[in-house]
Amino acid sequence: MTTPTRAASPPESAAQRWKRRRVTIPTMLAATAAALLLAPIIVPVAVAWDVVRLRWSLPTVRVYLFIAQYLINDTVEILAAGPLWIMAGFGTTLDRSASRRRHERLQAWSIAVLARRADRLLGVRLDTDPDIDEALTPGPAIVICRHVSLFDASLPALLYQQLGYHTRVVIMAELLADPGFDLLYQRAGSVFIPRDNDADAKHLAATTGADLDERTVAVIFPEGRLFRPEILVRSLERLTERDPGRARRLASLEHLLPPRPGGLNALLDAAPTADVVVINHAGLDRYPTFAEMTRNVPIDLAIRVTARRIERQNIPNGIVARTAWLDALWLDMDEWIDEQLR
After folding, report:
1. Number of compact structural domains in the chain
2. Do the domain assignments include residue 70?
3. Is 290 contained in some domain?
4. CA 335/CA 146 separation, integer angstroms
5. How far is the CA of 226 from the CAs of 32, 83, 103, 249, 279, in angstroms?
6. Residue 321 neighbours by CB under 8 Å, 6+ apart
7. What pLDDT does residue 196 have?
8. Residue 159's domain spans which residues?
9. Is 2 domain-assigned?
């Protein structure tokens, strides 16, 4: 197994990075402390509120407990970041396999705990294909997934970490506002890409695929942002201005945004032997925002998850051919989602 190279840093200076962290880290710690210290007051009030409204499943309490768990997880990640930095030679060996594995174990714990809480408190659970493991493994692989909710951002990592695999995720830079993501995911080999700088985004995406092995996969969300119907309309309008032929080809999309081929192409070029694994899911579409979900808790929602593997020899070369291939794949995924939601 090769020793991973250091993932490229976000296009920001150390001063900018710590200016952000001086705000995000104390804010997260203060929010966690408030949630725990005020729990003896908040929980009885939430119970009374639900009972008065005859909501016997106590949705307000459930949502509060889930949010509290998220805050606790983030705080554990923040507090663990210091000791893990010291264990990595005071930050000098953060790029070594041993350091990344330590960060990955903390990451896996956090994702698994939140998945269990989502099931028991919110009623959100996974319904995966019986043979999904055969499609997911082995590495090296480039994993692509749709993005309709904050919940599905961790779906590929959850599936692969249950199998003992390592994941490197291409994440939008906006999530650096979450200090747990900021401190933990970068050290585990993931990268945060800017939305408005294609050159840096492609370079950063490529670093995640540079040295994949049989137990490591790179994950990317080609839509680049959360799906929303109004964003789909605007995306197709902009695509019509830039590439009318491609816009016509993707005009039938209903549940997915037009995929952006740049990041995926950079990954494919950086990992010339990697297969592509396509993870598709349906169910979260009914509750696109956390606020909408909380109004219906517990929702008893089974997220239907499927995976398909595309061998490398079946993936074309060249940006034009790959874009057409990706568009056809996206149309197939959109049709499958539509069938599941009927």
Report:
1. 1
2. yes
3. yes
4. 13
5. 26, 34, 26, 21, 16
6. none
7. 66
8. 14-341
9. no
Do 34 and 127 contact (CB within 8 A), yes or no?
no
Low pLDDT (below 70) residues in the chain: 1-12, 196-197
Span 189-230, pLDDT tens digits: 898 888 766 777 888 888 888 889 999 999 999 998 889 999
**Helix pair angle (39-52, 14-37), 10° resolution:** 70
For residue 23, being part of any structural domain is answered with: yes
Burial of 53 (0-12, 13-18, 19+ CB in 10 A): exposed
Sort 62 into a burial class: Cβ within 10 Å, 0-12 / 13-18 / 19+: buried
Task: Give Cβ neighbours of residue 74 (< 8 Å, ≥ 6 apart).
Answer: 28, 32, 178, 179, 180
Strands 124-128 and 275-282 turn out to be unpaired
Distance CA 167, CA 28 (A): 25
Burial call 80-95: b when 16+ CB within 10 Å, e when fewer? bbeebbeebeeeeebb
What's the per-residue H, E or C state across the chain?
A: CCCCCCCCCCCCCHHHHHHHHHHHHHHHHHHHHHHHHCHHHHHHHHHHHHHHCCCCCCHHHHHHHHHHHHHHHHHHHHHHHHHHHHHCCCCCCCCCHHHHHHHHHHHHHHHHHHHHHHHHHHCEEEEECCCHHHHHCCCCEEEEECCCCCHHHHHHHHHHHCCCCEEEEEEEHHHHHCHHHHHHHCCCCCEEECCCCHHHHHHHHHHHCCCCCCCEEEEECCCCCCCCHHHHHHHHHHHHHHCHHHHHHCCCCCCCCCCCHHHHHHHHHHCCCCEEEEEEEECHHHCCCHHHHHCCCCCCEEEEEEEEEECHHHCCCCHHHHHHHHHHHHHHHHHHHHHHHC
Alpha-carbon distance 311 to 307, whole Å?
13
